[in-house]
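Q: What does the assembly look like in three dimensions?
Context provided by user:
Components: two
Sequences:
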Amino acid sequence: MSDFYAFFIRFLPDLLKGAGITLLLTAQGLIAGFVLGLLATLARTYGSKFWRGLAVGYIEVFRGTPLLVQLFLIYYGLPGLGITLSRELSAFLALGLNSGAYQAEYLRGSILAIGDSQMMAGRSIGLSRWQTIWYVILPQALRLAIPAWSNEPVSLLKSTAVVFLIAVPELMAKAKAIAARTYDPIGSYLAVAVIYLAIVYILDAFLRWLERVSRIPGFETEGKRA
Amino acid sequence: MTHPILEARNLTKIYGQNVIFKDITLEVKEGETIVIIGPSGTGKSTLLRCINLLTPNDGGQVFLDGKEITARGYDQDEVRQHIGMVFQNFLLFNHLTAFDNVMIGLTKVRKMAKDRAREKAMEELNRVGLADRADHYPGQLSGGQQQRVAIARALAMDPRVMLFDEPTSALDPELIGEVLGVMEKLARDRMTMLVVTHEMGFAREVADRIVFMEKGSIVEEGSPDDLFYHPKYERTREFLWKITELYGKKEKGKAAAP
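A: Here is the predicted structure of the complete assembly.
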């Protein structure tokens, strides 16, 4: 155990550098995925037939195929079409597109739960359709979505590990390099596991805080009843 | 002042094979309170939604201040702010306080300056007796209070006419009075109102005219006296007798409870 401790301390600075990139990838993917997911779910719920079809197609394709396949198609496949992207950009695109498909589904559930009745109420005072979506439906739907959506940051964080396969120097890549250098795969992968765990722990605390500060008195029960 | 504010001509709504209502013609004059009564499932609520353009109609026209609002290309969002609507289950915006529920239409629809909007929102809450609940969320209010906020929300738009869709049907008996009280006050202030309700006491005392609807058609309309004491049709008599009997029973039941 003390061996591991010494090992851990020794490689911590290097691992933290990787963890920084992992966190950056997670944050970027989460934000891009949120914007994409929101657009996709709005298109699917409120859009015309064309936009609905496009959104459903996007969601199905990116939820229905492995992240790794998406990543390889973007990084190794697109150059065949004359589009060559950097490793970082490829990683960002794959993670964002993939996360967006999942986030769209989390958001859709709560938009449906808020229902047509709030739309009717909004329209009845003269708000337009999109004003009602923006000022009435989304503020409620996003709050309702938090508990289910909370899976996504954690899940995405762990998913970022696959991008070491295109040599983005994130946490997992660092671990692999350290393992190769020290011939100590157990120590290095264990160290990485500890760091992932610590990040997830902090993320969870943040998400609980988010849920708490966005809470509206009496709203949860209202939402369930609707 | 007798020109009609609101007029429905041959209004028709069909869902698939189902005729919800057919050829409804109705006129609401300035300052009038019209009460629509009739058995459940006769299309009364759908009629209100059609008048408000929340549900598209399948025939006929609606006029507001003499302009046909059902005409193709008419700005529906614009027209809805002039037709207030109060729903059976309140439908307040659950993420906003009572105050913000009233305020949102003022700032987002009427584009009023914040200061003026705040003043006006407070006035409207005052009008329904809920100024002291301004910072409560809907979830923290009783059903009666929620419905009064919903009335204030609609009133804030200074509508030409207010539609009420069974505003007290979802309320516990002891909360009905406060909502009817607000509506009576509005009627006294000569707000133009079209009310769907089963509250016969309200209909008898407040309505200028009562419209009896059944199976998607207007059977009979007239003053409360005419309908309650000299109905032309047997159907009207039967319905009123039944509902008054029911109402009477409820009263007795209430009196018997401790």
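Follow-up: The longest helix of chain A spans residues 2-46.
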